[in-house]
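[#protein-structures] MJ: dropping Rho GDP-dissociation inhibitor 1-like here for a structure pass
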Amino acid sequence: MESLKIEGLAIAGPSCVSDSVSKFVGEEKKQLELMMMEEEEDDGDDDEGSFGKFVPGPLLPLKEQIEKDKEDESLRRWKEKLLGCLETDLNGQMEPEVKFHSIGIISSDFEEISNTPLPFNEKQSKGVLLFTLREGSEYRLKLTFSVLHNIVSGLSYTNTVWKNGIQVDESRGMVGTFGPQREAYVHTLEEETTPSGILARGLYSAKLKFKDDDKRHHMELDYSFEIRKRN
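AK: finished. structure tokens for Rho GDP-dissociation inhibitor 1-like:
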């Protein structure tokens, strides 16, 4: 008896394999190859760096979400915790709205947090100089925002940085899921470290974008920053 091995699959049989078996094995091999190719294509399609393959359910008005499954005690408590008491926002509006109030910088280079109101006013340039840091500094961007009308699910961000027109960095992160509430949310993004060296110093331009699981874009902010020599 000899065994026929095809990509890790062993088939025992006589040395002279019949045409029907050969055809069957060939078809199985083709199917395996097609499946592998489809998986590779699926992995490559995610050029925006989305978080997993989560497919969100249909969007419902906030009032309907509160009333849905109200007999489920644990789910009701979870909704109350997420949504709070928001009778004034139960207006049936479907689309959630994320309103950004300010952006700031937290760093050991600053004694206090620097905050800039959003949106930038008309007197400020499109790529306003948001902050100046020394090379090799650790920092975080801090955002203050409100959520209105509905739950925003899977809010995430992309921060892309260029120097002299060449992209030098891109970071992505998950902010979270937020329900509407009267108080503004305060969130700090993942910690970043400015590069070091003579070539790293100078002015940079950047674009910060926010979107949710439903592919709604909530903010696109152009700004600039400067890296200086550490004394």
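MJ: nice. Residues 2-43 form one domain.
AK: one more thing. Confidence is low (pLDDT under 50) at residues 1-25, 43-51.
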